[in-house]
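Students often ask why inverse folding is considered easier than folding. One informal answer: many sequences map to the same fold, so there is more than one right answer. In these notes we will look at a single instance of the problem. The structure comes first.
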């Protein structure tokens, strides 16, 4: 099989797309970001990343962006305001991506999924994630799929509101929190390994912490400027009767907080390298360096 040199990334500007793009570029791959808003993308992506305008709603733009690429990496999401009958990037968007990737002769597709895809939840969002896995597996394109635990970025970018760390509900089980940069290096390694074609990797960080423990350690490490504020999940669920976003947040938190996560990443660590970033190291990292090109 031809070695992978050129990688297109869809979702490059997202919370978890950015660290992967940085790691792929640092590992020496030629990275092309397929984005809706090139100006925004150029402000946040490393300067050596090629930026091409494309939208997953538009197969022609995807075909154009994927021409000549060896592989494509997907970091898509269902946004909190979406409803079941809407266009979803991981549903109709994924169909468009797979059609364009086949037309363009892309040799590998890599997809960021989630550990909670295998719960018995009937929530339509988790159903989209399950169906996305099937779509990719029957696409005829060699795939690599990642099932990550919680990302440390979530604490920083989704739970911090002003000076408060908003905690919804309480975790029943610990999670193996992982930093996006550690994950990005594992993704880069997977693209360099021909044997990673057809593989599914569990992605977990170095230690198991409940949501509360992770939040407390993050707040402590950032110097105590943040205050943790707890909101019971039933209250968010009640708010969800009036707001799609609150309903989404309540349901995703419920799925994550109840997920009985056990350690399953030893094979991943052996093949793709072990993550080392602790919550403290993540909280104290030089985020200006990590996001050097952000305006
Ligand atoms: N948070 C966690 O701890 C965690 C754990 C496990 C798995 N995950 C999974 O990780 C995935 C990625 O999450 P995230 O938080 O990084 O998502 P995100 O920040 O919402 O990023 C989504 C990306 O998709 C792009 N996009 C949206 N619509 C598009 C379109 N029509 N055409 C082209 N690009 C489009 C966005 O571009 P714009 O910049 O133009 O909006 C953005 O770059 C999700 O599936 C999530 O379930 C998260």
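Output (designed amino acids):
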């Amino acid at each position: 099989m031809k070695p992978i040199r050129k990688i297109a990334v869809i979702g490059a500007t997202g919370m978890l797309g950015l660290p992967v793009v940085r790691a792929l570029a640092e590992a020496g791959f030629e990275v092309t970001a397929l984005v809706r808003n090139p100006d925004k993308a150029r402000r946040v992506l490393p300067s050596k990343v090629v930026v091409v305008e494309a939208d997953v709603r538009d197969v022609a733009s995807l075909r154009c962006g994927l021409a000549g690429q060896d592989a494509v990496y997907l970091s898509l999401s269902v946004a909190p305001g979406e409803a079941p009958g809407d266009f979803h990037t991981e549903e109709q968007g994924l169909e468009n991506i797979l059609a364009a990737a086949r037309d363009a002769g892309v040799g590998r597709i890599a997809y960021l999924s989630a550990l909670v895809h295998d719960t018995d939840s009937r929530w339509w969002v988790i159903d989209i994630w399950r169906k996305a896995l099937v779509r990719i597996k029957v696409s005829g394109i060699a795939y690599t799929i990642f099932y990550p635990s919680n990302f440390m970025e979530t604490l920083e970018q989704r739970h911090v509101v002003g000076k408060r760390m908003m905690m919804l509900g309480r975790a029943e089980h610990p999670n193996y929190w992982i930093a996006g940069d550690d994950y990005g290096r594992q993704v880069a390694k997977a693209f360099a390994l021909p044997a990673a074609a057809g593989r599914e990797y569990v992605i977990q960080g170095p230690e198991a912490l409940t949501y509360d423990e992770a939040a407390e350690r993050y707040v402590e490490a950032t110097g105590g400027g943040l205050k943790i504020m707890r909101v019971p999940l039933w209250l968010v669920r009640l708010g969800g009767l009036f707001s799609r976003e609150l309903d989404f947040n309540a349901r995703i938190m419920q799925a994550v907080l109840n997920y009985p996560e056990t350690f399953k990443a030893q094979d991943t660590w052996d093949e793709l390298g072990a993550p080392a970033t602790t919550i403290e190291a993540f909280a104290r990292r030089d985020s200006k360096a990590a996001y050097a090109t952000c305006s």
